[in-house]
Amino acid sequence: MATVRRASAHWEGSLSAGAGDVSLDSSRLGPFAEGAALTAENPPGRTSPMELLAAAYASCVCGMVALILERVGHPAEALNVSAAVELDLRDGIAGIRMAVGGDVPGIASEEFSTIVGRAKDGCPVGKALAGVPTTLDVALTPDPRGAASPREP
Question: What is the DSSP string of 107-119?
């Protein structure tokens, strides 16, 4: 049986002068103010489709890494995943940079990197974004909160 999650968006006015919001309907969160979807502007206090996409991908990878680690007998103490989506105003999404940090007792760095790669490609959002170049920065660290911060595009 398929799982369905819903979100909605509302916009008023032109792209350059208008304003909108986005709501996460299934979880009943929002509305969140939204800025122009296809511009390089980043107005404070407003989200964008690219930021929401980065959040979705980071969340999906984080959950998938936790699942795989549990299945291979190395449950994580903590994981931190962040993503930066790069928008080319002519060609669309040019790439995604993702950083993954983990406090995972008893696992080798190489095995952790392999698991992160599997999670990136295997999570549902990763599968949907298979055609988008994605780079990974992976690190095992006792405090993964400081390990995962991809460079801004």
Answer: --HHHHHHHHHHH
In a domain, 153, yes or no: no
Which H/E stretch holds residue 122?
helix 109-122
The reported pTM is 0.87
DSSP, collapsed to helix, strand or coil, labels residue 146 as helix
Q: Read off the amino acid at residue 149.
A: S
Distance CA 69, CA 58 (A): 16
Question: Shortest CA distance to 116 belongs to which of 45, 75, 62, 54?
Answer: 62
Inter-residue contact 136 to 100 (CB < 8 Å): yes
Q: Are residues 92 and 128 in the same domain?
A: yes
Write the pLDDT tens digit of every residue in 5-47.
Answer: 999 999 898 877 788 999 999 999 999 998 776 665 666 788 8
Q: How many domains does the chain have?
A: 2
